[in-house]
From TrEMBL:
It comes from Bifidobacterium aerophilum. This is Peptidase. It comes from the Bacteria. CDD domains: MMP_TTHA0227_like_1 (cd12954). Gene3D superfamilies: 3.30.2010.20. InterPro entries: Zincin_1, Zincin_1_sf. It holds the Pfam family Zincin_1. Coiled coil: none annotated.
Length: 142
């Protein structure tokens, strides 16, 4: 009995000469997605800030979401579409959330995106602790 190709354990490539493999290696830059690169940039900025301010960064949870919620919080007079912070309360730690799609839309290239991520993180941490952003990162806004 002949078995259907999709039920076979070893797939062949479309010419029938060999097994299917990825078109590019997993270590090559093309393999990484835009969202994965964005997450790596956010993690790098958090590590950098943690090296300078471990007492401020350690108790804060950081998250990345694709888009901001459609209903802004009622206490926000002017909602920020790039990021948001939530103060700690009732057993939940303070949180900073970055929204990937609006930031990627604003950025022209990778360097610009890194600067936007840095400014958003520093701005939200400064708002969270009631400090000026220049105190947290002297290069903020440059």
């Amino acid at each position: 009995m002949i078995e259907a190709p999709w039920n076979a354990h070893v797939y062949r490539n479309r010419h029938g000469r060999g097994t299917r493999t990825p078109m590019f290696g997993t270590r090559l830059p093309r393999y990484r997605t835009r969202s994965g690169m964005f997450d790596d940039m956010v993690a790098a900025q958090i590590r950098r800030l943690n090296g300078a301010w471990p007492q401020l960064i350690k108790p804060v949870q950081f998250a990345v979401e694709d888009v901001p919620p459609s209903q802004p919080a009622p206490w926000e007079p002017e909602p920020n579409l790039n990021s948001q912070y939530f103060p700690a309360g009732h057993g939940t730690p303070a949180r900073v959330v970055l929204y990937r799609m609006p930031i990627q839309t604003m950025a022209r290239d990778r360097m610009d995106m890194q600067l936007i991520i840095r400014d958003e993180l520093v701005g939200r941490i400064a708002d969270l602790y009631g400090r000026r952003p220049e105190e947290i990162d002297p290069d903020w806004g440059l």
